[in-house]
Amino acid sequence: MRFGVLGPLEVWTADGDPVGVAETKVRALLADLLVHRGRVVSADRLAEDLWGGRRPANPLASLQTKVSRLRRVLGDLVVSRPPGYVLEVEPEAVDLGRFEALVLRAGQADNARARAGLLTEALALWRGPAFADFADEEFTRAAIERAGEQRLTALEALAEARLELGEHPDLADLVAEHPLRERLRAAHIRALYRAGRQSEAIDSYEDLRTRLAEDLGLDPSPALLALHSAILTQDPALAAPAAPRTNLPVPVTELVGRAAAVTEVRDLLAVRRLVTLTGPGGVGKTRLAVEVATRLVGSFSGGVWIAELAGRARDRDDVVEAIATVLGVRDDATTSPLPLLDRLVESLRSKRILLVLDNCEHVVEPVASLVELLLRTAPGLRVLATSQESIGIAGETQWPVPSLEEASAATLFTARAAEAGARLDASSEREVAELCRRLDGIPLALELAATRVRVLGVRELLARLDDRFRLLASGHRGAPPRQQTLRAMIDWSWELLTEPERVVLRRLAVHAGGCTLEAAEAVCGTEILDQLTRLVERSLVVVQDGPRYRLLESVAAYCVERLADADELDLVRQRHLDYYTDLAERAEPHLRGAGQPTWVRRLNQENANLRAALDHGGNRRLCDALGWYWFLSGRISEAKRSLEAASPLGPRSRAWLAGMSVLSGPTDPLLYKDVSDPLGQWFVGFALYRSGGDLAAGERLVGLALKGFTESGDEWGVAAALSVRASQAMVRGDLDRVRSDGERAEAVFRELGDQWGLLQTVYPLAALAEITGDYALAERRNREGLRVAEDLELWSEAADRLTGLGRLALLSGDLRSAQELHERARKLAARQSYRAGEIHAEIGLALGARRLGDLDTAERHLRAVYEWNRHSAFEPGNALILAELGFVAELRGDADSALSLHTKGLAVARHLGDPRAVALAKEGLAGAHSLTGDHDYAARLLAEATAARTEAGAPLPPAERADVDRITARLRAAEHTD
Residues 64, 105: one domain? Predict the structure, then answer.
């Protein structure tokens, strides 16, 4: 995260999205920790700063509450460390720290232009007075004064740097605000004099001299006296320095998102003589090179010069002529008999020059030979080149220019849209982010798109992006032809390729999200390594970790058109489908066993390609092979959509579709009536249990599957069926079966090395341990399950394990941890669209709220769960919910509602045949009858509940006796009263 204190307090994510810190005291706590960046602040100091003389009764407890709320926003950045707390962030994660670092670097810079650039960047971080919304607080006073002084010092240094560059900064307002600052006044006097306003410069000096004498009893410093004397004598040393020699264009727009790149490339040029900026067309190589070179004007006595090679240079003579022209080396035999190249070499031999060679990719070989010669003969020469591929000579440092990051891309697009007359508000943020992603963060593409926003709006622009070459067919008239349309930008690169390179590039376009070398060879041809290497070198193919090879989306769209032009589109798509069908079939048996994590990750990497294969004619074989992967990776909606679109489906795919439909919501039983193979029966039965569907139908299907797996000797299938049967037995309250089936399944899955399978045994066995009061074992199982779920990136399973841990925290009395764990589980499940997981977590939140005495919150959660269970026809879940609602009514003294709710709950429990649920309902009825005065009946109900629990082998653990103890106490009190 990043933090802003140079203005009102702000917090942003790494991508630049704002992070809300709403509560005033929590914001004050964050401000206090930021005042002491990286240093521990004692709890007493923080309490004093937050509350002063109006401390709460227990200030340390109140402080801990505020810290807890701040941690919900910032996470582990807020660290408890005796004797208090510290905010652990990198110095430059805070804008004040970034400001200080830039000012320090400016002080170390070896030329005025670099100093001016760094100081300008530093001062741009200020959004207002430091800690603006805490200016009246005592704990910020010293920090505000210190930061304000640093800002003034930076402004003075910037003024001096601009004077050194021959500029005339306007400092009148700043001097009026700080009339006694001698360094500032000296810069102001010098600027006035150089602007030809000598009398005003003298008046400014006299004003300072008078103020110093009257206010402080002091005389001007010797430096000011010397400056005054120099003005009176019109000393030539006061004249502005000569303008630096350069032909660099002056940019008309701000460079966005490249601050770090400018610094890195500039630093490279300090130690390397040849730096080449590489990258695809439109990524901003030229703009970055110009910005870096501009910062270095003044560092080279011979000047900073740019030679544009695109459109004019075709061979070495053209390159020599282009460089000679910008350096003023005349091609005139009357002035020298030497060839132009020799004259160029001689002109550079003793000079200190930075030469920018722009757009070298079409003449890379002549550029390479020439640059090698010039660097060898001119020791003071530095070369900054831009090219889609490296120059390829010894001593070269290649610096790939990346696409803009999401936040910077959005900033650039929004700024250029505004320049084109369009105003975008916050409602467009999501569409802008998607547009930037679709255009790969390429600045030129974003700028072309921005010209269309005023007419189309962002949403319509995004909707038309599939026809991007027609859409982005006009740009700024002053731009080079290759930069005026998106197609022209890619045409420029395409024309530089050989025919074999074009063949490979266009065939790569059928891949989505990149591909491996194996996949590329299967689709493009087996002998492609040389061509692929050249395409990577030319920045047309991006290499990712793996390695994987990817085309930018615009390049891919262009190449699909080229595929169609070559009449290869259908052929190449069929090769793509064949390869990924084979891959899915190779992966499928490994998804059950020790190879599961490896193959899930492999298919995750290829998910976009698998979707593309399905979209372009995917077959029954591919659907059959992908079903289990879709489930393991949490792609339920994608699976259902793909299976419904495929035709015709075989028995296996029909079973996958039935199970996925059940997991997606209530489903017509006819959909899974005819599932016949054991794997399909098991999957549908598992889905019915997991989604809270028809329990009896699920038990029947799992039983059939277990029989089929056993007959065929399928160990994995047997363990899978047993794990579901153990969970179903938990719903029925059959604890003996829970133990026997769960432990058998666990043993087989452990032997097979199937992590997903082990995860399925966690719930029934952890729940069994919880029921029997072994909370340590229950927690150990849940934590192991959470680790496995996170390792496999099975986030819905992780949500359930967090809920399990939350339940144990509740039972141990740690209500705050219970609330945090249940809330984490709820949010995680919501992100996965795992509604059943949200419901499980919401039950935990309801249980915690009731134990905290917040009956209204408890009831709100319980009613929501009850409605979901009713809508899903999940009757087993309502045994607990009706009992909890009944206890809420009883605690409010509402005997009639309590009786009604517990009576309904008892009917559900008896229908299920779960003795623990029956006991819970009877305990609730005892509480209701204790309110009506029917104490004997209430006591008898409690005794029956205890007997039922004992007979089931699950007596009530001490941590769950709160309701029974409360009702028992009420009965005893009534007995004494009687």
Answer: yes
Instruction: Please tell me whether residues 388 and 424 are part of one structural domain.
Output: no
Task: For residues 804 and 822, give the distance between their C-alpha atoms in angstroms, rounded to a whole number.
Answer: 9
Decide if pLDDT at 825 tops 70. yes
Tokens of 121: 């960047």
Q: Are 314 and 439 within one domain?
A: no
Number of H helices, E strands in the chain: 46, 12
C-alpha distance from residue 671 to each of 348, 369, 858 (Å): 82, 72, 37
Using N-to-C axis directions, what is the helix angle for 678-690 and 715-732, rounded to 10°? 30
Residue type, 185: R
CA torsion sign, 121 to 127 to 131 to 136?
A: positive
The three-state secondary structure class of 306 is: strand
- Diameter over CA atoms, the chain: 130
Please, how many CA atoms are within 13 Å of residue 786, restricted to the half-sphere of its CB?
Answer: 19
pTM: 0.65
Give the pLDDT band of residue 837 (cuts 50, 70, 90). confident
Measured in whole angstroms, the distance separating CA 296 from the mean position of its chain's CA atoms is 35
Cα distance between residue 155 and residue 822, in whole Å: 51
3-state helix, strand, coil in the chain (%, to 5): 65, 5, 25
CA angle 777, 782, 788 (to 5 degrees): 130
What b/e sequence results for 34-51 when a residue is b if at least 16 CB atoms lie within 10 Å of its CB, and e otherwise?
A: bbbbeebbebebbbbbbe
Model confidence at 651: pLDDT above 60: yes
Sign of CA dihedral 29, 32, 37, 38: negative
Place of tokens 């009687």: 978
User: pLDDT for 451-510, tens place per residue?
Assistant: 888 888 888 988 888 888 888 876 655 566 666 688 888 888 898 899 999 999 999 999
pLDDT digits (tens, 9 = 90+) for 748-792: 999 999 999 999 999 999 999 988 889 999 999 999 999 998 888
Q: How far apart are CA 159 and CA 166, in angstroms?
A: 11
Q: What is the SS3 assignment for 12?
A: strand
The two structure tokens encoding residue 175 = 């001097």
3-state class (DSSP) for residue 722: helix
- pLDDT for the residue numbered 870: 78
Q: CA 802, CA 817: separation in Å to the nearest integer?
A: 11
- In the numeric block, the tokens 């303008």 are attached to 243
Once rounded to an integer, what is the mean pLDDT over residues 271-286? 93
- Environment class of residue 959 by beta-carbon count within 10 Å: exposed (0-12), middle (13-18) or buried (19+)? middle
Alpha carbon distance 595, 586 (integer Å): 12
Q: What is the CATH number of the domain that holds 538?
A: 1.10.10.10
Instruction: Return the amino acid letter for 253.
Output: T
Greater pLDDT, 330 or 367: 367
Q: Is there a single domain that holds both residue 957 and residue 925?
A: yes
Nearest to 319 by CA among 270, 275, 284, 371: 371
- Phi/psi for 925 (5° steps) reads -65, -35
Beta bridge partners of 305: 355
Q: Per the structure, how many domains does the chain have?
A: 5
Q: How many residues does the chain have?
A: 978
CA distances from 156 to 72, 100, 183, 188, 640 (A): 42, 15, 7, 9, 66
List, as one string, the DSSP characters of 242-285.
PPPPB-----SS---S-HHHHHHHHHHHHH-SEEEEE-STTSSH
In a domain, 273, yes or no: yes
What domain range includes position 129? 1-165
Report whether 383 contacts 273 (CB < 8 A).
Answer: yes
What is the number of alpha carbons within 13 Å of residue 781 lying toward its C-beta?
A: 24
Percent of residues, the chain, with pLDDT higher than 70? 96
Q: Out of 383, 400, 417, pick the residue that ends a domain.
A: 400
Look-up of token digits 């390179």: 501
Question: If we measure between CA atoms, which residue out of 467, 408, 416 comes closest to residue 436?
Answer: 408
Please choose, from the candidates 560, 578, 472, the residue with its C-alpha nearest in 3D space to the C-alpha of residue 523. 578
